[in-house]
């Protein structure tokens, strides 16, 4: 099964808090862009998403080796020529006579056609001349002859055209495509039940099959990299299961069509943990990402990154609550420093940008327009008319209110702990059932009275 994730990067940490309380410069804000959630892939090779799609080669002598023909759609199939039966002497003589009369009939028809033009009524208003009559008769004859050749091509007096105009296209025999040999009714390998299947790359599946595909409960061992234990539907992870990888990562939760989908917990080999909603193999929805250094994000995710409303607790004690966009603080939010300072206002790609207010722990404030994390224009109560750089303090206060409302919504997002716990319990149960099915499949390989079931190799 192919993973759609990447190795997790180290979580970004917040800067140390400001030391002085009197007029210190606003401390920089940590860039959380490196806090993206990544799922490590197999260290050796990509996971086959559909192992059942490989052609199965049976070791039993009763089945032939699958081969794939490569017919060309431009080469028609060969057909044997069947000699035509001998015709009677009378019929042959009649055909010979008609062939001899073909040329004479055609010449006679070509000469007689112009007479039809002179028999047709001519308007009295048009003057008649020899040249005009000749050209008109020739054009009339050619048009009539062409019409006869198209409508009656099989008559003996029809003249052949320079380009062949068949009435219908020649029928071609259909090309039949096939993959492998035809299934043998005497094959001894079961297609439904419990048995073991070994793949050419070293992977092994032990568990239930239905109509030749992994369906039910089973264990898939990836060669020297990990295993999956859980539910299968039509050769893909579907239901609940547990993934375990050699480097130490593990996922327990729901699957759909071979991808993590639903609720589950992924423990990274680095120590990070994500617990929450999944969609098409990525963290998507509400969840909690806890980093190895102690920092934690609780909020919304979209396609594997922080996106929406959420609050982040940094390892140095700083917190941010508000809006995220593309894994960065973007929109309106409130950043509280561990030393008591606070910024409330607008953000852009992880930096203070727009209207906002910075409050020191001694009560002093700096309000105005921020650019790239630095206050570049102070706000004033009385704006000088015509001043292009003045910022009205009332607009700054409106931005502060928006930031506070976004922070409140970020703390009020729904928690999914109960749903995740139920999914983990179901995954553990499915893994136990898969191990039982694997044991049953392995027992069928034990020789019984000198007979051993054939082992399918893909």
From TrEMBL:
Stretches of the chain forming a coiled coil according to its record: none
Where are stretches of biased composition, namely Low complexity?
8-22
What InterPro entries does UniProt report for this protein, alphabetically?
MORN (IPR003409)
Q: Which GO terms describe its cellular component?
A: membrane
Q: Does this entry carry the keyword Ligase?
A: no
Q: Which UniProt keywords apply?
A: Repeat
The record's region (Disordered) falls at 1-87
Domain of life, per UniProt, equals Eukaryota
Q: Which PANTHER family match?
A: OS10G0565000 PROTEIN (PTHR23084:SF179), PHOSPHATIDYLINOSITOL-4-PHOSPHATE 5-KINASE RELATED (PTHR23084)
- Protein's name according to its UniProt entry: Phosphatidylinositol 4-phosphate 5-kinase 8
């Amino acid at each position: 099964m192919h993973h759609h994730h990447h190795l997790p990067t180290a979580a970004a940490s917040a800067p140390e808090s400001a030391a002085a309380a009197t007029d210190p410069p606003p401390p920089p804000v940590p860039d959380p862009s490196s806090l993206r959630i990544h799922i490590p892939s197999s260290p050796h090779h990509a996971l086959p998403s559909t192992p059942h799609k490989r052609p199965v080669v049976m070791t039993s002598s009763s089945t032939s080796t699958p081969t794939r023909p490569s017919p060309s759609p431009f080469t028609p199939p060969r057909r044997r020529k069947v000699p035509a039966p001998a015709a009677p002497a009378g019929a042959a003589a009649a055909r010979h006579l008609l062939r001899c009369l073909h040329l004479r009939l055609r010449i006679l028809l070509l000469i007689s056609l112009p007479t039809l033009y002179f028999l047709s009524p001519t308007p009295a208003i048009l003057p008649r001349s020899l040249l005009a009559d000749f050209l008109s008769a020739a054009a009339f004859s050619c048009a009539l002859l062409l019409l006869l050749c198209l409508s009656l091509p099989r008559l003996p007096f029809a003249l052949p055209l320079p380009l062949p105009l068949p009435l219908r296209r020649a029928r071609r025999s259909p090309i039949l495509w096939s993959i492998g040999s035809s299934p043998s009714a005497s094959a001894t390998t079961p297609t439904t039940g419990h048995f073991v299947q070994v793949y050419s790359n070293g992977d092994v599946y032990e568990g239930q099959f239905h109509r030749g595909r992994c369906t039910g409960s089973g264990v898939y061992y990836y060669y020297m990299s990990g295993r999956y234990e859980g539910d299968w539907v039509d050769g893909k992870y579907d239901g609940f299961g547990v993934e375990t990888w050699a480097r130490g990562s593990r996922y327990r939760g729901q699957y759909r069509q071979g991808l993590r989908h639903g609720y589950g917990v992924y423990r990274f080999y680095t120590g990070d943990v994500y617990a929450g909603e999944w969609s098409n193999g990525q963290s998507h929805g509400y969840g909690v990402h806890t980093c190895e250094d102690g920092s934690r994000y609780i909020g919304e995710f979209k396609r594997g990154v922080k996106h929406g409303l959420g609050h982040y607790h940094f390892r140095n004690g700083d917190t941010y609550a508000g809006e995220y966009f593309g894994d960065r603080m973007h929109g309106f939010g409130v950043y509280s420093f561990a030393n008591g300072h606070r910024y409330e206002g607008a953000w852009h790609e992880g930096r203070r940008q727009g209207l906002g207010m910075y409050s020191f722990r001694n009560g002093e404030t700096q309000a105005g327009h921020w650019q790239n994390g630095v206050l570049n224009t102070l706000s004033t109560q009385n704006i000088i008319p015509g001043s292009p750089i003045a910022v009205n303090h009332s607009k700054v206060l409106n931005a502060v209110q928006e930031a506070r409302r976004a922070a409140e919504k970020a703390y009020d997002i729904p928690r999914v702990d109960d749903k995740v716990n139920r999914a983990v319990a179901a995954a553990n149960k499915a893994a136990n059932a898969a191990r039982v099915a694997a044991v049953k499949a392995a027992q069928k390989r034990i020789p019984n009275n000198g007979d051993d079931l054939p082992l399918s190799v893909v």
